[in-house]
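Re: your question from the hallway

Yes, I did run it. Sequences:
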Amino acid sequence: MIAGRLPQIAITLALLSLVAYLAIGAMPGDPISLAMMADPRLGPADVARMRALHGLDQPLLARWWAWATGVLRGEFGYSRLFARPAAEVLWPALRGSLVLLGAALALAASLGVAAGMLAALRPRWRGAVNAVALLSQALPAFWLGILLIILFAVTLGWLPAGGSPEGGGFAEAARFLILPVATLAIAHLAAYARHTAASMAEVLQSPWITAARARGNPESRIAIRHALPNAAVPLLSILALDAGSLVSGALITETVFARPGMGKLLTDAVMGNDNNLALLALMLVAATTLLATLAADLAQRALDPRLAGRD
Amino acid sequence: MTRLRLGLAILALLAAAALAAPWVADLLGLDPEVPDLLARQAGPSAAHPLGTDELGRDILVRLLIGARVSLAVGLAAALASTAIGLAAGLLAAWRGGWVDAALMRLADGLLALPALPLLVLLAAMDPATVGLPRGGALADILRIVLILAVFGWVGVARLSRAAALSVLSRDHVRAARALGVGEARLLRRHVAPALAAPLTVAGSLAVAGAILAESTLSFLGLGIQPPAASWGNMLANAQDLVFSAPMAALWPGLAIALAVASAMLVADGLREGRR
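Structure:
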């Protein structure tokens, strides 16, 4: 299956880079007109010479090809905004985003599964869990972030409103992580809660559950040892389906909390006309998402042998 | 059905509020876009029921004017997504073969990618290079609607393809074909009615998604440009002032959540009604 999926991912990324390159080519402000604005002594002859020097007189497609083959050779070029090699800017940002994503995913999945089990096992709670799930899907993540800032940073003063720690150890880093992780996790636990509730309810109807009950197992053991593992495997497909929106959510959360990461880097690069960095950041985010989706699919197949034969 | 009614009632209320916006502005004697520097960040009062923002503009009036933008973008983007999705899904199911494969691979690709970075990139493009008008609130709305439709059609296309495939394989459709019924009439008489139910569900979910996406883009400064009001860009201004005027951040977010939740309730209710 990997043999089929990896080329598919490569083709998707290649097409995406082409579309994004053409889109960026249509953005206002190419590097030379920016240089012209910065230096009034540049004349038309200098502009023509600089365009030829940097290959900007070539057609867009030829420029895309040169860029793409360069990236494949590991030449990521420079960031105009930060005046440093793009790779040096990208890696720390990716690490920051992955920390946020990992922590939020763990929290969203565990809270979501707990809420879903509650809804499936205690019908009294079903309405409440559904309402919370609807709310968590309807709230704009960035607004939730602002509300948490108002409550915990402005009113109570317990946690920092955003930014990143200067020095300090793990505890200090964790303090800056709490609000962003909570924001992202709350926005995404609905999908886990709904699907856990649905698949638990289905599994609880199975004959082996009846058999386990007949053997005199207590209800808690049936729920945790017999039903949950079977209900959990489909959750991995939610993870695969949700990966794109989780990454999008992380990007907006980073912007709200002014947290260094891919989201802030991407908006800064797009706003600051740093075309190369914007393009590389987009490709890195897309590649990470597609590989995460693939990993979730593979894990699901590994855990559920019934899926192995299908493609 | 209660969910459907509740959702529709809230949406109708929001639409009525949006329509009444100029009338409320006249009544209070306020303009949503003219700054009043003597009344910056005022608390709620008789003159400003919800207070004023950082430029002294009335929050209530801007909220109501913003409702027009957010609801218009939501409905227009959902309509565009539904139309494109229906056409793509129907074409894929009806033609099959490589058309089906190409359209569905495209849909898979768009679904797997994170939408926000792509939306940000598209929103930063110069609209004039693709022949769209530049500047002004109406041009912004048109631009955002088109960008949202680029991603919004995928869900609708998958749903309508699945529904159309199941109808096309049924015996009465095959019998109609054998009797020499034309393809256009076949699609109109037999396939279209079966698509109505899934399309309304997908359409109301698209409304919810579009309202959220518009507010996100405007929040990032890439959607509706100030001084025109939209719920998203009101929140962007409010975030800079959380320490001095935290209440200003409350209302626009509440409005977004209410609109999105009611569109989701409509979708839930419609889905339930089909069972």
